[in-house]
């Protein structure tokens, strides 16, 4: 099956089917400590957050999703306009399709026209780096969208569940190291929902990676998505719940701060403003989300996406005020209790 059809399946299934982990991301293990005397005024509370030296209106990265077929271009343009309007960073989906078929470049490059000043990240799979990507290809990934960063996604579990998946993983680490040496922009490495633990994060940081997006379990299960595809004749449902809960990844990876300078994105099952603020309290610099964005956009269009963001923004300001914090960076582990 072509990449194009696979990417179409992914959007269709993540919007219309139950593709979620049974296990939770772990945020319900923590509660905010209510402060009845916050001594803070809502009007003085702000949600701006800094990521890779740039100020954004809210600590939410819109995770990499799509591209590589014409309808994906329309989705990408809408996400781009949304991020330009709200001053949020975002990533395009895997650009492998455009390396294989240059006629698909436009479904990605459309984001830069729609979001001339936004922070946009390119995206390629770790599996594509095993043989070392050609320099021309790397330049094309970045230049086609004038990317501010490049994301490498690691998805060994998903590859195993795909009938057409790549299952040769040797050499990905070296490929990431070469990429980090080669490109001018920061390299971000993410999972796609099975999580990055402390040991894996350390390997990545030693190889020049600047940002770890833990992308843990508790949200979209990519094993489940692949097992539900029509083309899947031999689903392996036992793997549907495989992965490290997001909260465990955040807490573990945060321990590396003593020895490495890096930024951490919390993602995988971020489903509310409460999850965003808890992520930051547990040590992440930023949060990211995928499925709620594509669901809102496909079901309700740009207005639904605006409304989702308005709610998260409003709730976050209330949470901060109730905690007695004026800014996102004032939130700490001391604002949470384990329940
Ligand atoms: C429709 C869709 C397509 C996706 N395609 C990609 C992709 O091309 N590259 C990538 O790195 N992650 C991709 N992802 C994974 C997300 O970026 C994210 O890591 C994962 O879905 C977990 O986050 P969530 O629980 O908020 O959905 C995709 C997610 C969705 C919903």
Features:
alpha/beta; 12 helices; single chain; 339 residues; two-stranded antiparallel ribbon; binds flavin mononucleotide; 8-stranded parallel sheet; TIM Barrel; 41% helix
Description:
The chain has 339 residues and is of the alpha/beta class. The protein has one domain (3-22, 59-304): TIM Barrel (Alpha-Beta Barrel). Helix content is 41%, strand content 13%. The protein contains 12 helices and 12 strands. It has helices at residues 3-16, 70-86, 96-100, 106-114, 135-143, 156-161, 172-182, 198-206, 222-228, 246-254, 273-281, 291-323, and strands at 30-32, 49-51, 54-56, 60-62, 90-91, 120-125, 149-153, 187-190, 211-213, 263-266, 286-289, 336-338. Strands 4-11-10-9-8-7-6-5 form an 8-stranded parallel β-sheet. Strands 1-12 form a two-stranded antiparallel sheet. Strands 2-3 form a two-stranded antiparallel ribbon. Strand 10 (263-266), helix 11 and strand 11 form a beta-alpha-beta unit. The chain is globular, with a radius of gyration of 19 Å. 48% of the residues are buried. The mean pLDDT is 96. Bound molecules: flavin mononucleotide.
Termini Cα gap: 46 Å
Major sheet details: 8 strands, parallel
What Rg, in angstroms, do the CA atoms define? 19 Å
Widest sheet: strand ordering:
4-11-10-9-8-7-6-5
Range of helix content: 40-55%
Bound molecules: flavin mononucleotide
DSSP summary, beta strand count: 12
**Separate helix tally:** 12
The computed structural class is alpha/beta
Write down the overall geometry.
globular
CATH class: Alpha Beta
CATH superfamily: Aldolase class I
How many domain regions?
1
The topology string of helices and strands comes to: HEEEEHEHHEHEHHEHEHHEHEHE
Low-confidence stretches: none
In the CATH hierarchy, the architecture is Alpha-Beta Barrel
User: Mean pLDDT score, rounded?
Assistant: 96
Q: Please state roughly what percent of the residues sit in beta strands, choosing from under 5%, 5-15%, 15-25%, 25-35%, 35-45% or over 45%.
A: 5-15%
- What is the fold-level CATH name, i.e. the topology? TIM Barrel
């Amino acid at each position: 099956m072509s990449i194009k059809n696979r990417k179409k399946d992914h959007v269709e299934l993540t919007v219309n089917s139950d593709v979620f982990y049974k296990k939770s991301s772990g945020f319900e293990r923590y509660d905010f400590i209510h402060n009845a005397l916050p001594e803070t005024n809502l009007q003085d509370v702000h949600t701006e957050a800094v990521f890779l030296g740039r100020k954004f209106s809210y600590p939410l990265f819109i995770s990499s999703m799509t591209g590589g077929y014409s309808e994906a271009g329309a989705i990408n343009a809408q996400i781009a306009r949304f991020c330009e309007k709200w001053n949020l960073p975002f990533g395009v989906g895997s650009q492998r399709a455009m390396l294989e078929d240059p006629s698909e470049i436009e479904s990605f490059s459309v984001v830069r026209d729609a979001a001339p000043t936004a922070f946009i990240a390119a995206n390629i799979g770790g599996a594509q780096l095993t043989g070392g990507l050609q320099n021309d290809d790397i330049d094309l990934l970045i230049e086609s969208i004038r990317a501010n960063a490049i994301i490498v996604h690691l998805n060994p579990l998903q590859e195993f569940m795909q009938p057409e998946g790549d299952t040769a993983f040797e050499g990905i680490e070296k490929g990431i190291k070469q990429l980090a040496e080669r490109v001018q922009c920061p390299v971000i490495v993410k999972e796609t929902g099975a999580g990055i633990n402390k040991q894996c994060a350390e390997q990545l940081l030693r190889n020049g990676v600047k940002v770890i997006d833990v992308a843990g379990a508790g949200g979209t299960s990519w094993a489940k998505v692949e097992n539900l595809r029509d083309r899947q004749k031999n689903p392996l449902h036992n793997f549907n719940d495989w992965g490290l809960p997001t909260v465990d990844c955040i807490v573990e990876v945060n321990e590396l701060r003593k020895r490495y300078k890096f930024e951490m994105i919390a993602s995988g099952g971020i489903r509310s403003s409460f999850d965003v603020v808890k992520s930051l309290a547990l040590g992440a610099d930023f949060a990211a989300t995928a499925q709620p964005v594509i669901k809102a956009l496909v079901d309700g269009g740009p207005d639904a996406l605006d409304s989702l963001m308005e709610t998260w923004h409003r709730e976050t300001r209330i949470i901060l005020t109730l905690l007695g914090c004026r800014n996102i960076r004032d939130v700490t582990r001391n604002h949470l209790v384990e329940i």
